[in-house]
Design brief:
The chain is mainly α and 226 residues long. 81% of the residues lie in helices and 0% in strands.
């Protein structure tokens, strides 16, 4: 049994379920753009995994050359980043000096991801391709992780939106970690570790959308009361 195929199938199915949940919840009139962007991130994951599945099923593998499926994963990170930077952070952070310490603490996450690049991808017998892919992945996880950590610890300003989305931001951080370890496992051609990382990613993805939906609904209720 090809564990790489199984791993990608699991993530693809779970991401598709998350996409359907998000599409049903957020692609309606007057629904939050934030939820729509996370839903599109799920679609990118589905497309990326489908490329991987077709590649493996057609007799290829994921180690010998750059795979188009990787672009789907990077696309999802761009939506994760844009949703926080473009639609939420302006509500959360008014850029005052009072909240500088939370911005500084938020920087710990990208620093940790960037620091992990050398031991994960520059040591051992890792091909140039995987050093490149690992570097690109680390760059985008670092961008995303800053806002996920920042919004996890930031005090509420706008009627509890931060508190409402904390469970999602925690899961998103875990997803960044599992995606990084999946890339590390692939660079070492480790099927078992890849499967474990993909199972973890699948669990995080399928739980994310209900958490976002519930969090945004709670925020709207609190906002209406105020």
């Amino acid at each position: 049994m090809n564990l790489y195929l199984v791993a990608n199938l699991i993530v693809c199915v779970c991401a598709f379920v998350a996409f359907v949940i998000g599409a049903m919840q957020f692609f309606r009139p007057r629904k939050a753009l934030y939820g729509q962007m996370i839903t599109l991130a799920m679609l990118c994951i589905v497309i990326g995994r489908l490329f991987n599945i077709v590649r493996i099923a057609s007799g290829g593998d994921l180690q010998d050359r750059f795979q188009l499926g990787f672009l789907g994963i990077i696309g999802s990170f761009m939506f994760f980043f844009s949703s926080n930077y473009g639609t939420l952070d302006s509500l959360v952070d008014d850029k005052s000096k009072e909240y500088r310490k939370y911005r500084l603490i938020g920087m710990l996450a990208p620093i940790a991801f960037l620091a992990s690049y050398y031991p994960l991808f520059m040591t051992g017998e890792v091909s140039l391709m995987w050093r490149f892919e690992g570097g690109v992945l680390i760059f985008f996880t670092a961008l995303c992780s800053y806002f996920h950590l920042k919004h996890l610890i930031f005090p509420d300003i706008d009627y509890g939106v931060v508190r409402s989305l904390r469970p999602y931001n925690f899961l998103a951080l875990l997803y960044m970690l599992s995606s990084t370890f999946e890339c590390y496992a692939l660079s070492r051609d480790n099927e078992v570790l890849t499967l474990v990382a993909c199972i973890c990613s699948s669990v995080f993805l399928i739980i994310m959308m209900p958490l976002i939906s519930r969090g945004l609904k709670r925020w709207k209720v609190r906002r209406a009361k105020n």
